[in-house]
Every structure is written in C-alpha cells, then in structure tokens.
Amino acid sequence: MSATLIESATRLAHQFMSEMKTIGDQTRMIPADYAPTWAERTWFSFFEGRNEAIVFGIIAFVVHQAFYYGRYFPYYVCDYIPSMAKYKLQPDKQVTNEQWWKCFKSLLASQIFVQLPMMMFFLPAARMVGFDCAAPFPAWPRVVFQVCIFFVFEDFYHYWAHRLFHYGIFYKRIHKVHHEHTAPFGIVAEYAHPIETAVLGQGTIAGPLLFNFFIEQVHITTMLIWIAARLWQTVEAHCGYDFPWSMSHWMPFWAGASHHDYHHMAFVDNFASTFRWWDSIFGTDSRYQAYEARRTGKAKSE
After folding, report:
1. pLDDT digits (tens, 9 = 90+) for 75-91
2. Start and end of every Fatty acid hydroxylase domain (predicted)?
3. If you average pLDDT over residues 12-28, what whole number do you get?
C-alpha cells in the first residue's frame, strides 16, 4: 500500500512539474471555429510563447495588489478627513506612523515571498483538477454563482481555522501577530504570521479547486474575480469604519467592519470572515451582540 501511495505521489509530482513548464499557445486555447472577443484575444496574448504558470502568477499578483491597496485607499483618505471620524468604530485609538510603516513593510514582504509563490503554483494545480483555461470566457451569471459559493466555503473554513488559531500555542506563536492591532485599519487584513497567511489562504484557494473537482468546471478567469471580491471584503472588514452605507446595514448576514472590529478589540468571538451566521449558529457572537447594542444605542442617543 505504501508503495502505491509513493507511486501516486511521484506521478502527481511529475504531472505538476510538467504543468509548471507549459508554454502558452493560443491555437490550443482558442477553438478553430470560435471568434474570440477583444478581451479573450488580449488575455491569451499575455501567455503566448511564455511560461503560463509564471504569467498567471504575475497577473494574479497584480490583480491582488491593485484591489488590496485600491480598496484600502478610500479608508486611508478618510483617516485625514475630520468629518469622517464620527464613523470610526474605535475613535479613541489612532494609528501612528511607526505602526503604519511597520505594517506596510511586513505586508510587502509577505505578499512577495509568501503569497506570490502560492500564486505561481496555482495554475498547474488548477489544470490538474480540470480548470477551464480556454475560450470562451464564462457567462457572468455563472461567475457570480460560483463566487458566491466560494464565499460560503471560505467563510466556513475561515471560521474553524480562525478558532483554532485562538487556541493556546497557535495564538501565542502565530495568530498574535495579527492581533497586534486592537483597532484595525484596512491593510491590516493581511498583516499576519507567514504560517497564518498560508493556512488561511487555503480557504480562498481550496474552494475553487474542490468545487471544480467535485461539482462543476471553473474558468481560470473566475479565480481572478474571486480573488478581487475576497480582497474587497477582507479590507472592508478591517477598515475600522462603520458607515451608514456599509453592506452590513442593508445585508444583515454580512459581517462587515463592526463585526470583525469587535474581534480585534476584545480578542474573542466573531471568528467568521464574511458572514454572521456561523458565529450565530455556534454561539460565538453573544458578547458582540450585547456590545453592539450598547454601541449603537449610545450613537443614537448622541
């Protein structure tokens, strides 16, 4: 049995390495009887004659950086607008320049040396489970449906992995880094120990891979849209602001900033990333509910 496992592992390793060496060829990706759109022609031109794994990793990294820091920028601006202070969840706590630069430099190191390699390895793994990498691009209803499923999967995974990181040595040695900021601000979302970055990142990666393997095919471009959507959500959750137009005010099951801000402030409860229902089902939001009732009640009285 052990010999069979070794043979299977060796075969998978060889297949993975072969996929890592694949060179882009538009004739292989665009059916002969299909007229590609401008977007499709542009997309495949990036890969033509180049190592596909490396090109996809670079594209994914650019998308990641653009949406991560682009999503954060409005909150950064708000920090310098006095009239926005009334929307701060913890207005008594200010981020110092030293804290900001420490966070930013640590983030860049993590994004380049931890996340970028994971992105480089994704396309070969995706091909091995049958991802669709060819034309045509998927229809928008299918993309939206799949991204919604990925959100649910990631949220469930994140809930339990996050709870584990609050246990004993996992918190002390790993998760405590993320909790250096008791009043989070946008880019704190990915400020974490490298092990935490890798482990929690599997919730974002594994959902599409498993969905493709067991349910239906996922297009590789859907993965980029999912990454952008996930970044949009996590930066908002760490933004430190509760605006009247925030999603949590018109989508009750959306966790939002107030939900996760409490977790940073109190170091307990509210372990989910995107939705409120897991904390509600498993009873890890009762203290937050009491705190939120007091906070919003006080805000209304003022």
Report:
1. 999 999 999 999 999 99
2. 148-284
3. 90
Specify whether the CB–CB gap between 139 and 147 falls below 8 A. Answer: no
Give the sign of the dihedral formed by CA 143, CA 149, CA 153, CA 156: positive
DSSP 8-state symbol, 112: I
pLDDT at 296: 84
Considering the entire predicted model, what is its pTM?
0.94
The torsion angle over the Cα atoms of residues 120, 123, 129 and 132, rounded to 10 degrees, is 160
Residues 6+ apart with CB under 8 A from 211: 146, 149, 150, 153, 218
Furthest C-alpha separation in the chain: 71
**Exposure string (b/e) for 262-271, b if CB count within 10 Å is 16 or more?**
bbbbeeebbb
Q: Cα–Cα distance between 131 and 223 in angstroms, integer? A: 10
First to last CA, the chain: 70
Per-residue pLDDT, 165? 98
Measured from the Cβ of residue 91, the count of other Cβ atoms closer than 10 Å reads: 11
* pLDDT above 90 coverage of the chain, percent: 90
| pLDDT interval class at 119 (50, 70, 90) | very high
What is the crossing angle of helices 116-128 and 2-20, to 10°? 110
pLDDT at 157 over 90: yes
Can you tell me the distance from the alpha carbon of 198 to that of 135, in angstroms, rounded to the nearest whole number? 31
> What are the phi and psi torsion angles at 195 (to 5°)?
-65, -40
Contact predicate 292/279, CB 8 Å: no
At residue 185 the predicted structure's pLDDT band, cuts being 50, 70 and 90, is: very high
Q: 264: part of which helix (H) or strand (E)? A: helix 256-266
Owner of token pair 């793994």: 125
